[in-house]
């Protein structure tokens, strides 16, 4: 049967879902921010006052929004469909010609603005506000970003000629950074340079360094020890000479940027797609394992489309009769579905890392399984 007045019913459903979605999203974000504020109160001291702590937490709201949007969409749409079913409005729509296929197409249209909102929050507003939030906290406390490892952050780099402007030459440089401060500053730096045969060339240490806009590191108070192999008659018994030099300032060209260093201190799941892409390219160029980052990258790409999966999961609730359960029970079921998806998504990612599964398959499998569950449930309830 041809649906009567299709655009009117689509606008009506969209309005109902968006209103419920906005209310639930606001409630969930406020709840999470409240717990964030409670956990942040223990850090309030000195220049880090309570208003600054509140500002620090509020600037994290966009990241919270991007995390909660799918669950809020699921709960809000279940509430709307349950209310339509309890008031027999959905029955009228079915009589007018709204079948399961047309319902899915309608939900795809409704989900499009929510997908764009998720991309905006997770890729533009969220990373910027998160960075600004951390800068406020660091400046107020007078501290720096510290790694969870006692030895600091380790990163692999490629060697260039001594003048810093030459091409990449055979060899590798391992850089250890103790702390990362504000304004692109690094502290407690150590560098170990090896040639193509992994013979140690030099050890360099610096008290601090800062990244120049021209793309070079400027290191202060540098102590450098260079090792040179002296020619001997017996090649199996090499002899090395060491020379120690001190420099007040050293400029060094490196592929390790402040952005790469900063992403080493956060989990890949909290990075933007662009930052993840750059970091993955850096790891591959240095022949390092990037499997975890690849899984996180594809999860970030696929994540906005899970909103459509959540809305599709809510559609079968509209076909359930009132006697099958009240609105409250259906909303509770939606909360359980959302929690199960989040848990299953995280579990599947860890299993994919341990099993070295393809990154695309690992990231796409949970949403695909829940979408199949939604289609099977919809076919089953729509026949009643």
TrEMBL record:
<feature type="transmembrane region" description="Helical">
    <location>
        <begin position="12"/>
        <end position="35"/>
    </location>
</feature>
<dbReference type="InterPro" id="IPR005495">
    <property type="entry name" value="LptG/LptF_permease"/>
</dbReference>
<dbReference type="GO" id="GO:0055085">
    <property type="term" value="P:transmembrane transport"/>
</dbReference>
<protein>
    <submittedName>
        <fullName>Lipopolysaccharide export system permease protein</fullName>
    </submittedName>
</protein>
<keyword id="KW-0472">Membrane</keyword>
<feature type="transmembrane region" description="Helical">
    <location>
        <begin position="68"/>
        <end position="86"/>
    </location>
</feature>
<feature type="transmembrane region" description="Helical">
    <location>
        <begin position="327"/>
        <end position="344"/>
    </location>
</feature>
<feature type="transmembrane region" description="Helical">
    <location>
        <begin position="301"/>
        <end position="320"/>
    </location>
</feature>
<dbReference type="Pfam" id="PF03739">
    <property type="entry name" value="LptF_LptG"/>
</dbReference>
<feature type="transmembrane region" description="Helical">
    <location>
        <begin position="356"/>
        <end position="378"/>
    </location>
</feature>
<dbReference type="GO" id="GO:0015920">
    <property type="term" value="P:lipopolysaccharide transport"/>
</dbReference>
<dbReference type="InterPro" id="IPR030923">
    <property type="entry name" value="LptG"/>
</dbReference>
<feature type="transmembrane region" description="Helical">
    <location>
        <begin position="107"/>
        <end position="128"/>
    </location>
</feature>
<keyword id="KW-1003">Cell membrane</keyword>
<dbReference type="GO" id="GO:0043190">
    <property type="term" value="C:ATP-binding cassette (ABC) transporter complex"/>
</dbReference>
<keyword id="KW-1133">Transmembrane helix</keyword>
<keyword id="KW-0812">Transmembrane</keyword>
